[in-house]
Amino acid sequence: METFKDVISADQPVLVDFFATWCQPCKMMHPILTQVKEVLADRIRIIKVDVDKYNATASQYGIQSVPTLMLFKGGEVLWRTSGVIPKAELLSTLDPFLR
53: domain CATH number? Predict the structure, then answer.
């Protein structure tokens, strides 16, 4: 079974959505991430991490608010932000990391 560390250590960029089921902004982010995945297809992997279920992982990365998005590649954090981010802004932010 793949671990979180396995996933973020891959050569493929991985966008991690740290979220909570009770969080309204997190619910707003879900369709945006779905659309981003449709645009970027296999250029990126997007995973969701429930901070209530995996609070050790959330703590390890200093997640203090949700949603928090983090972009990893080869185990390194390339970018992070908190809050809802519009699709166009997210795509333009991710683009330089996907080249």
Answer: 3.40.30.10
